[in-house]
Amino acid sequence: MFKIKKLEKGLNYYCHVNEKFKFNIITLNLIVELNEKNAAQNAVLASVLRQSSNKYKTNRELGNKLRSLYGADFFCDVKKAGNRQIIVFGIEVLDDDFALEKEELLKEAVNLLFEAIFNPKIEDEKFTKEAVEIEKKDLIEVVKSAYSDKRQHAFKQAIKTLFEGDVFAIDKFSSLKRLEEVEEKWLYKSYIKLLKEAEVLISFVGPKERFICLEEIFKAFSNFKKGDFREIEKKEHFIFKNFKEKQEIDNLTQAKLVVALSKKEKEKINIDDEIAIEMMNYVFGGTATSLLFTNVREKESLCYFCRSIYNEYYGVIFVESGVEIKNVEKAYNSILAEFEKIKRGEFTEEDINKAKSTVDGAYRFIFDNEDKVHTYILSCFLTDVYLLPEEKIKKLQNVTKSDIIKAANKFTVSLKYVLKGVENK
Amino acid sequence: MEKNIVEIKRLKENFAILKNKSGLTIILKPMQNFSKSVAVFCTRFGSIDRKFKKQGEKEFKTVPDGVAHYLEHKLFENEDGSITFELYAKEKALANAGTSFDSTYYYFASPPETFINALKILLDLVQKPYFTDENVEKERGIIGQEISMGEDDPFWKTFFGCLKGLYHNSSIKLRIDGSIDSIAKIDKKVLYDCYENFYNPNNMALILVGNFKEEDVLNLLKIELKEKEPVFVDRFVENEPQDIVEKFSIMKMSVKMPIFAIGFKISPKKGNEALKFKVGFKILYEILFGEGSSLYDLFYKKGLVVGAELDWELLAGENHFAIILMGESENPRKVLDEISREIEKKKVEGIDKNQFELVKKIVYKDLVEQFSKPEKLASFMSDCFVENVEIADKVELIANIKLEDVLDCLREIDLNRVNLAVTEPFDN
């Protein structure tokens, strides 16, 4: 087990140092409750903060500063984990040891991050209308452009359909309507609220421990954490109510099929059960040796991709595939048939061993990459399970065939979503 | 085997390059601090190699489009019926393969203790083809669906729309995976024929980077590498006129935001000249379009390009050399106008030396990054092999790039040889 340092209530810090790294990455993850109105405001706010500050007033000034830091990557991202929205600010910068003129790259990069978040460009407690309108327009276009990626679009529509009326259905950017409603006059309030109420995870990955350079950021966050912070209650897993089926027509050559499998009954989430579900998913459709890959793709030649993903926040398994329109039913039935095989235990110890072996490699490689460490640590923080990759591997290795059968039998098919063109096209 | 140690003093790095009797290039770069090792086996055979002949043969033969990609899929078949992904899985290895315009590569990453076993699987995979009528037929449905997936991808379609607008004859304008009709013509004979011609050791490289012992690798290679007589292939190079096919190419698809590709047709270059252009353009791109540039600022403030940033790709070959810029915009023509205006302006005013020096640091950082992780380095090295350039030469060229080289790139951009391809929504 590893620990995340609690600097104070709502403020957490994790550091991973390994001399093999040549870059430093610092991320500031601000975790808040997902709701339609705030999600849109936070998304616009994050982009506004990313683009300029009091110190770097224009995009050109900021861009030139980043160039002087050897093209440091200053990023801002909005994520979603169940009923939580995560606003991520981060910077990736070459380590000082590689600077050609002994520049203090890390210190400068951290300062840039600090300025963006704690010294924004505001007048009379207001962000400028111009900055807000630019980011609003851009985010609206980003949402519209997601429609062009049909695989992603089908997946989003499936989530909307399955969780209709539930907080899980809310998109990480909320909706076009909510984005359009964002106004600069409310944004300053959202900004203060975000800094006060968000649970913060600061993580640092690089070749050397340089805690000292982050102190200014710790202090600044600390000033906002005076009593207003409250922990977000993680929402329970989604439970099957009724089977849903939806078909939408688009101008497509290939049909995109999404199948969801949900838990039948409410249960207290515990780590060993979740590990068994994760393992079951690898055997079912999560690897290139899984039943879905081997049978639906390789034996039946029905598709190029057919894979399953277990979402630990929703507690739902999603299967996605792209198939010929005339083969949608055949693929759907094949996917369900493979899942039934898992439920009945019609798979071998060898199938399990192959999946175990594959995920062993995948987990071990995580700590070879600075950015993968950040993603892994954030997911540990969000699930409240602090296992190092090698500990996770050990737990996965201990899953037995009967654990897998038991895990599969908790699920039933809850959604069939199809996005397709007209058949004679 | 001949062995040379290459030292890259400016990055304090070194690695070994070996060549076996059959002409296979082997690159070994231990990186002991990592939990994985990476192996890439690549060949200079891609989608543009559609017409060729063995040296000494009279006639060129034409193969169906998409054959390099089909061959990549089919090499995963084994005579004993074992499934390659399962063999890799047993060794805790994550494997993949890919085909581009000019190369095919096979890749895996594994923990140190299973690296030699996984490497044996890779060597078998690439060196022991096993094609039957049945297994070739089986793949048609899978690849057909991969092609259909691409048909629904407006970014992919726009990219090729632009290449078609630039090139009259060059094979670069054709999809890498072919079409449903072209793959219908592929059979085991075609696959074996391509294999014999292009999967010859003197056309291939094996690149190993990460946590392994050189001695163990060399012992395995001594036993497992097949000796073959070198084969030399002449590739047919289509005659490509200087001018473009059309200035504007419009497509309609199910999108909400128009997607555009702006292609600049540049005169083909070879060797060092090509390499210098590639490096110079990287700097030019940062100066013209990177965050901090006046175009980025304009795209951002006017909301002209989604995210204000453009993706870019540079495609280089015997009869083609093109820069493709891609993005999303409500007004792609205005984007092209602004880009053209800025290029003209820079041609007249030149490039500020301070800006050049600043941006040059990014190129240095990129170089450090290539040597920072096994998978990045293996990919950098295999790119060098496919481009036919020495890794050390490439590093030196990047480090020594001059402002004049960047200005040369700028001068080469001819605004009369530009295509704008746009994929618009149906109702537009």
Offer a quick outline of the entry:
The complex is a heterodimer of chains A (425) and B (428). Chain A has 15 helices and 13 strands.
Per CATH, the superfamily of the largest domain in chain B is Metalloenzyme, LuxS/M16 peptidase-like
Order of helices and strands of chain A: EEEHHEEHEEHHHHEHEEHHEEHHHHHE
Please bin the fraction of helical residues of chain A.
40-55%
Runs of chain A in which pLDDT lies below 50 for 5 or more consecutive residues are none
In percent, how much strand structure appears in the residues of chain B? Answer: 15-25%
Shape of chain B: globular
Question: How many DSSP E strands of chain B?
Answer: 15
Give a quick account of the main beta sheet of chain A: strands, pairing sense, barrel closure.
6 strands, mixed
Q: Give the DSSP E fraction of chain A (strand runs of 2 or more residues).
A: 15-25%
Number of continuous helical runs of chain B? 15
Mean pLDDT level of chain A: 94
CATH superfamily of the largest domain in chain A: Metalloenzyme, LuxS/M16 peptidase-like
**Largest interface, C-beta within 8 A:** A-B, 66 and 71 residues
- Report the biggest beta sheet of chain B as strand number plus sense, adding barrel if it closes: 7 strands, mixed
Task: Give me the CATH fold name of the largest domain in chain B.
Answer: Cytochrome Bc1 Complex, Chain A, domain 1
Structural class of chain B: alpha+beta
Task: Spell out the blueprint of helices and strands.
The complex is a heterodimer of chains A (425) and B (428).
Chain A: E1 5-8, E2 11-17, E3 23-33, H1 36-51, H2 59-68, E4 73-81, E5 84-94, H3 105-118, E6 122-123, E7 126-127, H4 129-145, H5 150-162, H6 176-181, H7 184-197, E8 199-206, H8 215-224, E9 244-249, E10 255-263, H9 271-286, H10 291-299, E11 303-311, E12 316-323, H11 328-344, H12 349-365, H13 370-383, H14 389-397, H15 401-408, E13 411-420
Parallel strand pairs in A: 2-8, 9-13
Antiparallel strand pairs in A: 1-2, 3-5, 3-8, 4-5, 6-7, 10-12, 10-13, 11-12
Helix pairs in contact in A: 1-4, 1-7, 9-12, 9-15, 10-11, 11-15, 12-14
Chain B: E1 2-8, E2 13-19, E3 25-30, E4 37-43, E5 51-54, E6 61-62, H1 67-74, H2 84-90, E7 94-99, E8 104-110, H3 115-127, H4 133-151, H5 154-166, H6 180-183, H7 188-198, E9 204-210, H8 214-224, E10 233-235, E11 248-253, E12 259-265, H9 271-289, H10 294-301, E13 311-316, E14 321-328, H11 332-349, H12 353-370, H13 374-387, H14 391-399, H15 403-412, E15 418-425
Parallel strand pairs in B: 3-9, 11-15
Antiparallel strand pairs in B: 1-2, 2-3, 4-8, 4-9, 5-6, 5-10, 7-8, 12-14, 12-15, 13-14
Helix pairs in contact in B: 1-7, 3-8, 9-12, 9-15
